[in-house]
Amino acid sequence: MTRALVAIRGVSQRFGADGADVVALDSIDLEIPDGQFVAVVGPSGCGKSTLLSLVAGLRLPSSGTVLCDGEPITAPMPRKVGMIFQEANLLPWLSAVDNVAFPLKLRRVAKAERLLAARRMLELTGLAGFEDRLPHQLSGGMKQRVAIARGLVQNPAVLLMDEPFASLDEQTRMVLGDELLRIWSETRKTVLFVTHSLNEAVYLADRVVVLSARPGRVVDDVSVDLPRPRSFAMTGGERFGALKDRIWQHIKSAERR
Amino acid sequence: MTWPERHPRLSQAVLYLGILAAWEILPRAGLVPRLFVPPLSEALGALVADHREYLGSLPTTFGEILVSYVIVCGGGIGLGQLVGSSATAQRMLLPVLRSAYAVPLVVLYPVMMVWFGLGSQSKIAFASIYAFIPTMLTAVAGVGALSPALAETARAFGATRAQQILYIALPASLPSIVAALRLGGALVIVGVIVAQMLGAAEGLGFLITRHRTLLNSPGVYAGIVLVLLITGLHELLLRGLERKVAAYRQGA
User: Fold this and answer.
1) Which of A8, A135, A191, A220 would be a feasible disulfide site paired with A37, CB 3.0-4.6 Å?
2) Is residue B161 domain-resident?
3) What total of structural domains would you count in chain B?
4) Looking at the domain assignment, is residue B8 inside a domain?
5) Residues on chain B touching A146 (C-beta within 8 angstroms)
6) What residue in A sits closest to B246 (Cα-Cα)?
């Protein structure tokens, strides 16, 4: 039996003290095999980002367990799980290469070694030649590339992406989406990708998990049977439209409530 | 690109030299009455002739500046960090502090002379109160600049609490601390000199006032030259500190 790399079992998350509980996530069960690209979509406020922060170890679930490689996640495990946020969140006083090397510095990896690894990651994300730029000298898309390089620098098995392209313009978003697929096909990470864009979800992922409005429950688990490599032409195709429509029906009914 | 853009250092030097030359030439040409502004050479001459007196005033002046500096920057920056890290404290205190900032505190100096006497204590008290609030407000602004998103990012990459302070909080607040030091220092120098001018028995400000009452303009300007040197020295020290801070942030 193939074991899931990331397993989310009976996870619920409640916020707020005593009587005024808000249930953000309600008994979520998800098994994500190694190397799969999973998109998580749902109406706003459905707890998609909360789900990601549980896998990141940034918070503990109220009940249930999250496992990575069979091990329960109780704190951030940066060597197994890399995180990319909506904003690049780079340290403004560090150059691109130093930002990418930052997770290694936290682990006290020797300077030469961590700079070498960081340079390699910047090359992978298409930023060779920009190593010494400070964040304010980079465009929004380039900053997010630096953040992706930083998420990959420890060679984690899992990459968590929390609406990573949401604050970029449409064109940059499309270019970075293709770049992400190229990087994914080269590195074969397991990706958990939260987005509010149905196009993005269907275009990028092997599988789209649809959450309901609060309390967040899994209402559909759609397997995207489009061939890879994906191309822009597919987005106008019948199959793409059908998948998107199926997901949209869930979201529409949830947003109307 | 214009000439000053291409040669910033050289054009700066030219600007300084121009000001000094004007200081020398305009009074000599009779364009500015010598009683208002004596030529630079006369001011420097007075400084050399009475160097004992002027140098003798420096230990008191420096001492008063130093003690006030420690009070203002230690207390102001420390308290600023505390207030800055609490939203409630900011809401409660900032409006009060901002309106207190607008009060011309020099009106308090006579009261302080009554409380603390003619000696150093009244100068230190005045300079400290004068500089405290703006220094603290600068420090508060710096704490607010720290983004919680950066702290969470560091946490996701496994930063311990100590690493978050060392690599995120400290480098993020250092520029505002240096800015607070710069402002605090400049205001403390002003505060001490003004207090000495208003009522003292020694110190640089006292010398300036004494020469002024005797209508000895070169003597007044000799004192002003020394004040300029003190502020210039302060600026130089802070630029050195700024470079160190920048290097720490990039290399730490």
Assistant:
1) A191
2) yes
3) 1
4) no
5) none
6) A93
CATH number where B218 lies:
1.10.3720.10
Spell out the alpha helix ranges (H) of A87-237.
Answer: 96-106, 111-124, 140-152, 170-187, 198-204
- Count the residues in chain B: 252
Please judge whether A78 and B150 are an interchain contact, meaning their C-beta atoms are less than 8 angstroms apart. Answer: no
User: For residue B96, what are the domain limits?
Assistant: 38-251
Summarised one tens digit per residue, pLDDT across range A204-237 is: 999 999 999 888 999 999 999 999 999 999 999 9
**What is the identity of the amino acid at A27?**
S
Residue ranges per structural domain of chain A: 86-155
Within 8 A of A93 by CB-CB distance, chain B residues are 171, 246, 249-250
**pLDDT tens digits for chain B (252 residues)?**
788 888 889 999 999 999 999 999 999 999 999 999 999 999 999 999 999 999 999 999 999 999 999 999 999 988 888 888 788 888 898 899 888 888 888 888 988 899 999 899 999 999 999 999 999 998 888 776 667 888 889 999 999 988 988 888 888 888 888 999 999 999 999 999 999 999 889 999 999 999 999 999 999 999 999 999 999 999 999 999 988 888 777 765
Tokens 């006497």 belong to residue: B117
The answer to whether the CB atoms of B153 and A94 lie below 8 A apart is: no
Interface residue A106 vs chain B (CB under 8 A): yes
Q: In what order do the strands lie in the sheet with A158-162?
A: A81-84, A158-162, A190-194, A37-41, A207-211, A218-223
* Residue A142 distance to chain B (closest CA, Å): 18
B222, amino acid identity: A
**Residue B49, both tokens:** 């002739």
| The two three-digit tokens of residue B97, written as one number | 């502090």
B177 part of a folded domain = yes
Q: Which amino acid is it at B209?
A: T
Please report the ipTM that was assigned to this predicted complex: 0.88
Cβ pair B216, B43 in contact under 8 A: no
* Nearest-angstrom CA–CA distance, B195 and B207: 12
On whether the CB atoms of residues A32 and A203 are closer than 8 A, the answer is no
Q: Which two tokens stand for residue A165?
A: 């392209």
Report the gap between the CA of A77 and the closest CA in chain B (Å).
Answer: 7
In a domain, B198, yes or no: yes
Q: How far apart are CA A202 and CA A180, in angstroms?
A: 14
Judged by DSSP in three states, A195 sits in coil
Q: Are A146 and A96 in contact (CB under 8 A)?
A: yes
pLDDT of residue B176: 87
